[in-house]
Amino acid sequence: MRVTLEINAQLLKCACEMSGINDKTTVVNAALTALVQREAARFLASQGGLMPNIGALPRRRRGWASPRKNRTR
What is the domain count for the chain? Predict the structure, then answer.
């Protein structure tokens, strides 16, 4: 999708230098991805106190084999 944006030139240059990415579109996409991941993590963390008595949840269902055990070479 094409969008016209006004981006701070110094901020874009700094982002390119820090990330090692020289393509402007790729830098903006990486920044948006990082923003979405950060906000999703913040949202999940904020939901942690809604069920204080839930206790620890099991990580695997009983009887399920590990995917690594079933690998063939």
Answer: 1
Contacts of 28 (CB under 8 A, 6+ apart): 5, 7
Token reading at 25: 């579109």
Q: What is the pLDDT of residues 7-48, one digit of tens each?
A: 999 999 999 999 999 999 999 999 999 999 999 888 888 877
CB atoms near residue 18 (< 10 Å): 9
User: Is residue 17 assigned to a domain?
Assistant: yes
- On the question of pLDDT at 58 being above 80, the answer is no
